[in-house]
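Q: How would the structure tokens look for this protein?
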Amino acid sequence: MGTTVAKKTDNKKKRTTENSKEKQKFLRIITALIIICLTVIVIGAACIGVSRALFSKNDRLILRRIELNGMSPERKASLLKYLKLTLNEDNLFTIDIADIRKKIEKISYIKSASVYRVLPDTIKIDIIQRVPIAYLFKFGAKWVIDEDSIVMNRKYCMELKYPLPVIKGLKLQTISVGQKISGLTQAVKLIKLTAYEFQNFKIGSISMEDPRKITFVMIRNKRAYKVLIPKDNIKNTLQVLRYALTKKQGAHKPIIDLTYKNKIYFR
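A: Here is the predicted structure in token form.
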């Protein structure tokens, strides 16, 4: 019996010792974690302080110059005002260049923009402007569009030294800058094809009144033609038109209808 009591006492002491060791081990782990967290906080605070000293609070990194490419210098002041940038005050590293790029690309006549910091004091902005390809409604109109059918105010677009065709017959209740007009895909394709692949066809105007076909006025060899074509297979139709005009003989007939299958009518 005495032996049994002694064994129970020894087991109890052993469990007490093991519990004590586990508590000590747990306390050491907690202490280590606290030390690590405090170290991280101290290092983080130090990094922030160093970062501010080197960048956002560094007087040598004040914005003193904006290098603007792809836009006329006359618009620099208005762009600065729009972007809310202040020369000789703003720090290069407090300026959110991603936000600056997004703001610039919201301007209707700008297709894309790239913004860079150039140390120690410059923001560089490279701009690609939208290129007007047609007037809307009438010649010399306020509104123009680019190849993405984006509406722009001609006053603020890049200045072009060549005439633009006009797209007529649009049924729009309202129109505003930056608006994308649906339904102009074929008209835009026609304009681009005659600009690059069929350069002897000079488009004057395009009518979109009839949903089944495109009617356009063009000049070829100093002669005016009114041409009617289907809305699909525009490139093939222009190839047929070019071939037909090279073979055409006799009196000039100003109306050409290619909307009938396998037939061309000169009137």
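Confidence is low (pLDDT under 50) at residues 50-54.

The first strand starts at residue 65 and ends at 69.

Upvote if useful.
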